Amino acid sequence: MTDRSVAAMGGEPNTANPLLEIADVTMRFGGIVALDAVTFSISQGRIAGLIGPNGAGKTTLFNCLSRLYRPIRGDIRLNGRSLNRCSPSDIAALGIGRTFQAPTLFASMSVLDNVKVGAHARGANTPLTDALSLPYMRREEREFEQIANRMLKFVGLDQMAGRPAANLSLGSRKRVELARALAAQPSLLLLDEPAGGLNHAEVAELGALVRSIRDEFGITVLLVEHHMGLVMSLSDQVVVLNFGRVIADGSPDEVRSNPAVTEAYLGTQH
Ligand SMILES: Nc1ncnc2c1ncn2[C@@H]1O[C@H](COP(=O)(O)OP(=O)(O)OP(=O)(O)O)[C@@H](O)[C@H]1O
Ligand SMILES: [Mg+2]
């Protein structure tokens, strides 16, 4: 780990300075308003749950945060800095990591090499410096490998480092994806339905892992999840989206007892 991430470890959440501020973010697909003036913020060191029925706009918001989509209105600030001018390739270097609703690994590459991709995303390598293979690049490569090994150990997959990613179970693929996101040493981690498809025991292990991501590394987590037990037990703050709008933002208890939230979920399968 570098000084940057060591410095970020531990410490109390800073409630005065939000790490992430989302202001008036609006996104349309043709006639569909996927996000409608979405506004909320997350303090550093918190776990925030982002919930809502299918099609509420959760993944669309993640895609706006990682700049895959450009909102038609609004601003997203990380540590006070607007992301409006950033491209998707800037995101890892700015400190945003993510996992996807369906894991996206390089099937023929080893588990370790998949995780190293994350470390590279944060590093200073360019195609030119890679080609030149300068001594400092070889040093950096060794550092990337150490970080990747450390993150594989953290997610409990160090025994599988040399295996092709294609041979892993869904639960293990999700862990590799998590390790890859962590290897980029993010300050904000976006998790899109990490519990989807996992069994009861795997969900419990995932909960412990997400908590230790926050507690050991000081990483702020925004968690999209349909597994209500997991979200409510992990989150310091829960934001509820429905038809692209924020309908509730508060503690798990506040959100649980909010009639608008109950109504949004009525008739859905959650
Ligand atoms: N690329 C796209 N093109 C057109 N419409 C889209 C696109 N992406 C999302 N949408 C629409 O935007 C709305 C929000 O979708 P989104 O995938 O963000 O929902 P979600 O909250 O992540 O749902 P789920 O819980 O099912 O994953 C939906 O009506 C969806 O059909
Ligand atoms: Mg989604």
Architecture overview:
The chain is an alpha/beta fold. It has one domain: Rossmann fold, CATH 3.40.50. The protein has eleven helices and ten strands. The chain has helices at residues 3-8, 58-65, 91-94, 111-122, 127-132, 135-154, 170-183, 200-217, 228-234, 252-256, 259-265; strands at 14-29, 32-44, 47-51, 73-78, 81-82, 96-99, 188-192, 220-224, 237-242, 245-250. Helix 4 (111-122) packs across helix 6 (135-154), helix 4 packs parallel to helix 7 and helix 6 crosses helix 7 (170-183). Mean pLDDT is 88; it is low at 1-14. Adenosine-5'-triphosphate binds at residues 29, 32, 34, 52, 54-60, 101.
What's the helix and strand layout?
Elements: H1 3-8, E1 14-29, E2 32-44, E3 47-51, H2 58-65, E4 73-78, E5 81-82, H3 91-94, E6 96-99, H4 111-122, H5 127-132, H6 135-154, H7 170-183, E7 188-192, H8 200-217, E8 220-224, H9 228-234, E9 237-242, E10 245-250, H10 252-256, H11 259-265
Parallel strand pairs: 3-8, 3-9, 6-7, 7-8
Antiparallel strand pairs: 1-2, 1-4, 4-5, 9-10
Helix pairs in contact: 4-6, 4-7, 6-7
Residues 29, 32, 34, 52, 54-60, 101 line the site of adenosine-5'-triphosphate.
